[in-house]
Amino acid sequence: MWQLANAGPASEQESFGTSWVKVSLHWKSDAANPVIYGVISDATDKMRSETALQAELERFRGIYLNLPVGLWRSYADKFVSMNSAMAEILGYLSPEEAIAKVQSIEHQVYITPVDRTFFFDELRKRDQVRSLEMKFRRANGDVFWAAAYGRIFYENGREYCEGCFVDITDKRQAEERLRIHDEILRQSIEAGGVVAWQFEPVNGQLQLFGALKQLLGENVQSDASFKDFCKLVHSEDLHHLKSYFEKPGRSILPKELHSLDFRICRVNGVGKTEIRHLRILSAVTTVLYSSPQKPYRGVMIDVSDLKSADTSLHRSGENVRFADMDTAELFTSMSHEIRTPLSAIIGYSELLAPLAESPRIQQYATSIVAASRSLINIINGIHDLVQLEAGKVKLLEGVVNVADLIAEVDSMFTDEAAHKGLEFWAQVDSEVPPVILSDEARIREILVNLVSNAIKFTNHGSVGVRVSLSHSLEEKSINLLITVEDTGVGIDCENPEDIFDPMLRRRSQNKFGGTGLGLAICRRLVDLLNGSIKVKTELHHGTRFDVILKEVKVAELDKKTVQSDSLRKGVLRFAGQKILVADDTASNRELVAEAMKNAGFTVLCASDGNEAVELAKKELPELIFMDLRMPQKDGVSAARELRCTSELASVPIIAVTATNSFAELEELKGLFDGFIVKPVSLLRLFSEASRFLKPLSAAEQVKEAEFKLPPEAFEQLSNPWKLCEIVSKEFMSKFTPVDNAILIDELTELAEQVKRVSQQHSFGILALEAESLIGGLHSYDVTAIKKSRDKINKIFTQLLRVYSRR
User: Cα torsion for 668, 669, 672, 678, to the nearest 10°?
Assistant: First the structure.
């Protein structure tokens, strides 16, 4: 073959090409004239084809050598060729090394000669082998698993074998680990008496695994239909079970656990039928399939022993509960007998103290009140603890003015702290809402117990109360933090939480001191209020109690809330309204009568239910205080008779009782308009009276021209400087007296704004006046509108004068 470069005519010399030619030469021998002749043919296409074929062979050789699957060819128990992957699988550095060192495939690669015989037998049977998983040996002696492929072919009368190895060692090891894990799981399930299930909703097939005989009886197969399984289920539970199996098809969230308790009638090992309680649980590790074509899974366990124990425990609990209720009822009856004379002792002593001219007699009266209150506190403590233990104490939710409540506690303990030379302080943070919805009596009881304990065990330094926000959940709900701290002796014990257990307190009386009832009651009341109480203490340095009331609702500021301060200070006066006091104890009647007369009431008294009914029909009082326990006719019967009298059916009746049993009060709620629990508090009497009878306010006792706010009106402002800024910029000019026409809509919107701002800044008097203005605007009362607008202007003027920045 010759390779020629052709040149064409001058016009074609710009294009050159390469061609291959085949030349055949012949020599003609002639001495005179030797001649060479031959044939030249074009071989370009043939050479190009051969070149392309050679390149393709090189590519296939590269694939063969670098393929990750081991490829090999053998003849007479020796490798003839292999690629790099096969050499690596066998543990050699190169194919050449493997071919040279493997002298006998039968002895060096197969585990035993029998394995090679088996492999070739399979080849000859089927002419080829596909994915035959066998063990083989590497160059270093390690055993590995491979999926072997092979076929036999003949060339020049010689038998060759070629094939490939895929290393599946990791796969087989993983399968072995999974098999061991499954076996351990199976044995564990059986040992634990658990049956795992898988339900196929398409065909109703229920596959069961685990302790089948132990749980379901002798006649249950692992591959049963759901219909067959339902034959075991108690007829009363069958509907619930079928409904349960419909639930998983509607998708279950990962953390949800769907369970159902049901009964089965199974045949035990001795052939007897018995009823067992089972609990079935859905799988919760992943979201269950929502498609009806996919299976869903779960487990079943035997809860018969648990059900039996629960029944026994419930019966025992009921017996204990009834015993506690009997104890509570007995103590309630005894408490009533003790509270009645104590009410008279405390009441008369309170009335006597300011009347006594001699300081010694005043001291005696004060001592009687203190001793009586101490006794009533002990009785209250025992009674409350008994009621709490019996589960009889329920919450009576109402509006609580936080500032008033803390001020009341302040007034209760300031003198006692000063007497011991202690500083007593009480603080309400500005972010605390003015009013909340809770049980005021229970919060007060917690505060009184904690503060009295703090003063008792503090000899120098201070005792303080602080109300703040633990966490604001949303606009209408808060977590309220009440802190009571002192600089007293601290608590000497390994676990401060022990002080809340009256039994531990009793065993360590000398260490803690006191009865231990107060803190035990605090813990239970805090639990009842959905809260928690924690104590931090350091010996000789003091103690701190943190009470967190969770998810407390924020209430709206209303007129009754604003009036509470006046009630506390006793400035409310009444205009001679007629009230009836019915009580079989003369001292109690006289106490209430004296206190109510001093407040401006006209008081009628009755000693039993019959007298109360006759006197009420004759005198037609505007309010009745009715003792529940009286001879001849009790307070309940008398109240029912009064309700049936047309002239008295709408007269408010306040029940006076020695019990605070929620159940009893709930039963009487429809008959009475309110309740006062003995010992009777004068503040409570005036509070109930002001609910139904309108008192004379201080503003009504002076002339309009002399209108002036007392200093106390500004004491509860949360941020007076901010309020002044708002009033000066937004409201002052709009409430200046003018003679022009009144724009109802505009003034109504303005009054609503004033009301909202005053409520936000705890300015109760301004809020009430804004409410009065809104009422006048709704009724189109021009006189009332002008009066309220002028009064608001005066309130603004006084506010700016008091908090002027000049």
Answer: 70
| Structure tokens, 158 | 């010689």
Which residues have a Cβ under 8 Å from the Cβ of 188 and sit 6 or more positions away?
none
| Among 159-163, 438-442, 485-489, the least confident range | 438-442
Confidence at residue 252, expressed as pLDDT on a 0 to 100 scale = 42
pLDDT per position as a tens digit, 521-540: 888 889 989 899 999 988 88
Contacts of 315-319 with C-beta under 8 Å, sequence gap 24+, read: none
Q: Are 621 and 649 in contact (CB under 8 A)?
A: no
CATH number, domain 705-802, options 2.60.40, 3.30.160, 1.20.120, 3.30.70: 1.20.120
User: What CATH topology corresponds to 194-302?
Assistant: Beta-Lactamase (3.30.450)
Q: According to CATH, what is the number of the domain 395-557?
A: 3.30.565.10
The residue type found at 75 is Y
CA distance 197 to 278: 13
Separation between Cα atoms, residue 277 and residue 302, nearest integer Å? 6
Residues 83, 68: Cα–Cα separation, whole Å:
9
Q: Which two tokens stand for residue 482?
A: 């009440």
Please state which CATH number belongs to domain 305-393: 1.10.287
Residue 110: what pLDDT?
Answer: 94
Q: What is the rounded distance in angstroms from the CA atom of residue 664 to the CA atom of residue 73? A: 99
What's the CA gap between 533 and 497, in Å, rounded?
A: 10
Helix (H, G, I), strand (E, B) or coil at 233: strand
Give the span between the Cα atoms of 685 and 678, in whole angstroms: 11
Identify residue 418 by its one-letter amino acid code. Answer: A
How many distinct helices (H) and strands (E) make up the chain?
26, 26
305, containing H or E segment: helix 304-352
Joined together, the tokens standing for residue 445 give: 């009881």
> Residue 685: which pLDDT band, with cuts at 50, 70 and 90?
confident
Tokens, residue 190: 């059986």
CATH number of 67-167: 3.30.450.20
From residue 714, give the alpha-carbon distance in Å to each of 5, 718, 730: 117, 9, 20
Contacts 24+ apart (CB under 8 A), 794-797: 794/707, 795/709, 795/765, 795/766, 795/769, 796/727, 796/731, 796/732, 796/735
Topology of the domain comprising 568-698:
Rossmann fold (3.40.50)
Q: Note the pLDDT tens digit of each residue in 461-475.
A: 999 999 998 766 666
Asked if residue 103 lies in contact with residue 74, where contact means CB atoms within 8 angstroms, the answer is no
Q: What rounded mean pLDDT belongs to the chain? A: 77
The CA distance from 604 to 651, in Å, is: 15
